[in-house]
Design goal:
Elements: E1 3-8, E2 18-23, H1 32-41, H2 43-54, E3 66-70, E4 78-83, H3 94-111, E5 115-118, H4 130-143, E6 150-155, H5 158-168
Parallel strand pairs: 1-6, 2-4, 2-5, 5-6
Antiparallel strand pairs: 3-4
Bound molecules: ligand AR6.
Length: 169
């Protein structure tokens, strides 16, 4: 049984086996969660990301996929980087956003992670409406078969927290 929990706060302050990063395909950093994770996690994370780019992910990490690195100085064992879709008004990219959660949980299972902290992927710079982002996040986790015991959504502000709380209720 997977427990879903919600907290409001900064994901880089969480203690978990795995912390999920809302990355971009380059894997080389950015703003939002990505910037915060690299700042607080230190250079070891970027060093592993660079190795991934010269190795298996020469063209970058495709949207909807997920890959793990060290968590550096974060209070976690791994960072799982996933690339959410940019929201579009003309194309339904929901399946790609659901894939981010599913693929991240797959990486977590492969690693043996029992607790995982997710941000609200795509709901910042990538413009996904919060209510719909919460719906996809919660339903995807509820429908995914995983050995992860706790899936914790870490929501930056009250608006995001309330959107997820409504979904869980
Ligand atoms: N802890 C928890 N949530 C946060 C934090 C934090 N420290 N900082 C922001 N959020 P975003 P995206 C929330 O923009 O939309 C980057 O430049 C934020 O309020 O981080 O997937 C990447 O490199 C929002 O609700 O990710 C990509 O280029 C949610 O986290 C691009 O942004 C996601 O916002 C990815 O965009």
């Amino acid at each position: 049984m997977t427990r879903i929990t919600l907290v409001q706060g900064d994901i880089t302050r969480q203690t978990a086996d795995a912390i999920v990063n809302a990355a971009n395909s380059s894997l080389l950093g950015g703003g939002g969660v990505d910037g915060a994770i690299h700042r607080r996690g230190g250079p070891a994370i970027l060093a592993e990301c660079r190795k991934l780019r010269v190795g298996h992910y020469g063209k970058g990490l495709p949207t909807g996929q997920a890959v793990a690195t060290t968590a550096g100085e974060l209070d976690a064992r791994w960072v799982i980087h996933t690339v959410g879709p940019v929201h579009s008004d003309t194309e339904d990219r929901s399946a790609l956003l659901a894939s981010c959660y599913r693929e991240s949980l797959k990486r977590a299972d492969e690693l043996g992670a029992r607790t995982i902290a997710f941000p609200a992927v795509s709901t910042g710079v990538y413009g996904w409406p919060m209510d719909d982002g919460a719906r996809i996040a919660v339903t995807t986790v509820q429908e995914t078969d995983t050995a992860v015991e706790e899936v914790r959504f870490v929501l930056f502000d009250n608006h995001a927290y309330e959107a997820f709380a409504r979904r869980l209720a």
